[in-house]
């Protein structure tokens, strides 16, 4: 049984050692967002439903709190809070790995705060992908999971199906970011104003891509996840169809029906978003970035980048690179 379609469910993983302030603070933040939406007259927005989840004795996730108390669940996001303890043990990571892989495979966005990222990394879902964590744990994350590309300088990294944030108290920023992504800038800004905290930064042009992941087409979702990883960076239509296990024409039709985009358009969004982060946080040349995100022709990359962001890669770097004037 699935959840009501007029609600958007956000789960919070309550694992041993999880920071209570983050678990209950995020629950309160989303409750405030519901109140603010009502006061603004935003009746077209779905109601935020917050559920808390724990592993039972058989290593299955069970609900221990549900803000709406409705039958059925349809998690759009699973939040993994930080911990005041040391980085999670290998045993704790192994216990949660299968459950997180299952959620991710069903189209749930995984989002972590601080060392919550270790649980996602322990599931193998971050292999070949970028992620951020608290500065005190970047070396430990790199050493324990060498396949993860640790982005030490980024406070928050939204990579579509996986979102990671760095600071121990970054759960407020992450909560507001998710409001912005799923329910819009106005609600995120007014919720921050109600809470008297700094609003989430406005996403930079081209740097934020909110893909449809909850469509239920497993073959298409498999390709979406593959494109986010290293193996799919220079994939063409035939490669994507093979990944889906479908004939190209059938794949093209199903992909567009599920995501609202043609496969090539979707891949361009993913690659340009990755290029934006590299332009902001690295000093690689534009040509190197083009090759790194899957374009063999830097000229073609520049054209796509300008069409999606409204500026050239060089202009983007001058305006938004960390440390620029």
UniProtKB/TrEMBL annotation:
The keyword Transcription applies. It comes from the Bacteria. Residues 221-319 form the HTH araC/xylS-type domain. The keyword Nucleus does not apply. Keywords: DNA-binding, Transcription, Transcription regulation. PANTHER family: ARAC-FAMILY TRANSCRIPTIONAL REGULATOR (PTHR43130), HTH-TYPE TRANSCRIPTIONAL REGULATOR RV1931C (PTHR43130:SF3). This is GlxA family transcriptional regulator.
